[in-house]
Amino acid sequence: MNGFRKGLFAIIIAIALPIAQADAAGSTFDGTWNVRISSSSETCGNGATVAIGINNGQIASSSAAVTASGRVADAGSINVTLSTGVKHAVGSGRLSGTSGSGTWRGTMCSGTWTAERM
What we know:
The protein is of the alpha+beta class. The protein is built from 1 helix and 8 strands; from the N terminus they run H-E-E-E-E-E-E-E-E. Strand 4 (67-72) and strand 5 (77-84) form a beta hairpin. The relative contact order is 0.18.
């Protein structure tokens, strides 16, 4: 029975270790980020800054006025949706270290975004 327990323990460790490593890699970008949204169109406004939070690779809003959702991959590629009222925009890009950038598109507007970790 002792050999069975050792074997079972080894199997549990072999399964759990890669899962723990995947969680650690996904959390590389965890924290609060300031995202500056810009548009080249005057009708879309001059831009805005939104705070988002990332926890275990999942994006959530840090603001009551804007809803954020999406995911950051281990390598830093990001896909996010921002919503406020009936307006929404979908963005994509890349985070690296403490900064990032990408593009976004809404119903009638589009532009770029940059991000800095706070």
